[in-house]
From TrEMBL:
Subcellular location: Secreted
Annotated Ca(2+) binding sites: D251, D254
Superkingdom to which the source organism belongs: Eukaryota
Similarity annotation: Belongs to the AB hydrolase superfamily. Lipase family.
Molecular function in Gene Ontology: metal ion binding; triacylglycerol lipase activity
Domain PLAT: 384-506
Record-given protein name: PLAT domain-containing protein
Gene Ontology annotations for the cellular component aspect, listed alphabetically: extracellular space
Residues the record marks as active site: S211, D235, H314
Keyword terms, alphabetized: Calcium, Disulfide bond, Metal-binding, Secreted, Signal
GO biological process, one term: lipid catabolic process
Residues spanning the signal sequence: 1-24
Length: 509
């Protein structure tokens, strides 16, 4: 077991802004004063062995100090949540629950004083340590955290720590944003204790945080000088973070490898909860990264009360991460300039820079930068990508929806919607849809195409035509790179009738 040098520990404590003396257990009572003493920091009494709780208010500068975790102020770069400073650790109620294959019941870990929680636990530094952290309005008992923990322990013998801070995460949003700084300070102290007492190596640590938990992970990584092995941000929260300094948000300086899964990166006014810009080594944009299929998100989603208040698209990020742990489907994510290009089928190719795999296995790939992936609307979310191009022939414009079923050597897909629902379809145009199927069909041998005209509204007013002229359909398989062409001998699709077409051997019509 490798021991960490004490001088290195001292360096970390300096990074943490923690005075060594505050780590000593004492019986002195905490004092609480409000002072207006100029801009210098509140002085700690030489005889006191505890850090007093002091609130300093001068002009706009405010600071709060708590024993063990240190001081928190609102000067730049920590002015992203200007009016709010964190509550006391007792009010935030941080809990660390350790699970291993040896203990199904959790063991509580603490970082304070001389307790023996770490020494008496099943924590084993020869193994990976995965830490799961929730965000706004969640708490330690979230089922999604238990599910991720269970999946991890099924595939590997690791130390899994679930971090709960429900009391601090269930007040107002601003209060939760402030409180996460204390959660990060406490988690850093726990990790330092694990290094010191159990031989943990920071490179073996993987923090997995959702929403504000992603930024909690980032702040923890920053406090530990970016030495943590990996941080996965599951839809890192946008409000109070987007466009702020990288010191306050999860970014690539916080760990040796940082991967973000973006599922709800819209502005607050549009009802988004996630950050929309790339900040990690690899940023995965899922279905464009703004909203998710199968979700009806509204502005109320993120800020309404209760667990259900965490919006569907925002929560999809942890569902995807969970599925990725044990899925045989590869979650292939492609390099692309933006989602418009991706939706046009222009990026189902791993060049330039290589593809990556969204989720648990992202660290197995060398790809860096933004990567794009489409998923299905419900579990299993992962699918194989196919770009389907409908080449419209010459005839009348219409309004309707086109579906395609692929039949291959290994199986068939469901009927997948290629055009937008009830889209205006114009003569002579090409319509491209990037669709996903939970199974890879192998060599595509035939397809079935179906056209449903728009029914119109009152008395069928504005409905689509019964026929729509189509010459050919092209299919490109993203995962295999193969391209197929299918020809329509009738040169048209008829409302509600399926046309089954064999692959064109020459690739031409
Ligand atoms: C510490 O505080 C508690 C309750 O606030 C009080 O009962 C106790 O007397 C105090 N101890 C000292 C040493 O001041
Ligand atoms: C500190 O004092 C303020 C003002 O009297 C009070 O509201 C607050 O609860 C106190 N905090 C602690 C941690 O005792
Ligand atoms: C505010 O907090 C930061 C981070 O702990 C610290 O580096 C900085 O010196 C503090 N600013 C003041 C004016 O105390
Ligand atoms: C810690 O884990 C290693 C590797 O899995 C194992 O060989 C060792 O026996 C474990 N130590 C204890 C105390 O369980
Ligand atoms: C997407 O990228 C393409 C190619 O770089 C560019 O021409 C286009 O303007 C971009 N579209 C958006 C919406 O940014």
């Amino acid at each position: 077991m490798q021991r960490i040098r004490f001088s290195t520990l001292l360096q970390w404590m300096t990074i943490l802004g923690i005075q060594t003396l505050s780590l000593a257990a004492t019986t002195t009572n905490t004092t609480n004063t409000t002072t207006t003493i100029g801009t210098q920091k509140p002085s700690v009494s030489a005889t006191s062995t505890r850090l007093p709780v002091v609130t300093t208010t001068v002009n706009n500068f405010r600071e709060k100090c708590y024993e063990y975790v240190g001081c928190f102020n609102n000067s730049a770069p920590f002015n992203n949540d200007e009016k709010t400073l964190p509550l006391a650790p007792e009010k935030i109620g941080v809990e660390f629950r350790l699970f291993t294959r040896k203990n199904e019941e959790y063991e509580k870990l603490t970082y304070k004083g001389n307790d023996v929680s770490v020494k008496n636990s099943h924590f084993n530094s020869s193994r990976r340590t995965r830490v799961i952290i929730h965000g706004f309005q969640n708490n330690v008992n979230e089922q999604w955290m238990a599910d991720i923990k269970d999946s991890l322990l099924l595939i590997e013998d690791s130390n899994v720590i679930i971090v709960g801070w429900g009391p601090g995460a269930n007040g107002g949003y601003d209060s939760a944003v402030a409180n996460l700084r204390v959660v990060a300070a406490e988690l850093s102290l726990l990790l330092i204790r694990l290094v010191k007492e159990a031989g943990l190596k920071l490179k073996d640590v993987h923090l997995i945080g959702h929403s504000l938990g992603a930024h909690t992970s980032g702040d923890t990584g920053r406090r530990l000088g970016g030495q943590i092995g990996r941080i996965t941000g599951m839809d890192p929260a946008g409000p109070d973070f987007l466009n702020y300094n990288k010191a306050v948000l999860l970014d690539k300086t916080d760990a040796m490898f940082v991967d973000n899964i973006h599922t709800n990166g819209k502005t607050l006014l549009e009802g988004g909860a996630g950050i929309s810009t790339p900040t990690a080594h690899v940023d995965f944009f899922v279905n464009g990264g703004r909203t998710q299929p199968g979700c009806k998100d509204g502005l109320s989603g993120f800020f309404s009360g209760g667990v259900a208040g965490v919006a569907c698209s925002h929560g999809r990020s942890h569902q995807l991460f969970l599925e990725s742990i044990r899925s045989e489907c590869p979650f292939t994510a492609y390099p692309c300039a933006n989602q418009s290009e991706f939706s046009l089928g222009k990026c189902l190719d791993c060049e330039p820079g290589g593809c990556s795999e969204m989720g648990f296995y992202a660290d197995q790939h060398k790809a860096r930068g933004s990567r794009f992936i489409n998923t299905r609307a419900k579990a299993p979310f992962c699918g194989f990508h196919y770009a389907v191009t409908i080449h419209a022939g010459h005839g009348d414009d219409t309004k309707g929806t086109i579906y395609v079923t692929l039949r291959g050597s290994w199986g068939n897909t469901d009927a997948m919607m290629v055009t937008e629902s009830e889209e205006k379809l114009k003569s002579g145009e090409d319509y491209v849809g990037v669709v996903v199927s939970p199974n890879e069909v192998g060599n595509v041998q035939s397809i079935t195409v179906k056209y449903n005209k728009y029914k119109g509204w009152l008395f069928g007013l504005g409905s689509g035509n019964t026929v729509f002229a189509v010459d050919a359909v092209d299919v490109l398989s993203g995962e295999s790179g193969k391209q197929y062409t299918f020809c329509l001998p009738t040169r048209q699709l008829t409302h509600s009738q399926s046309a089954t077409l064999p692959v064109s051997p020459s690739g031409e019509c």
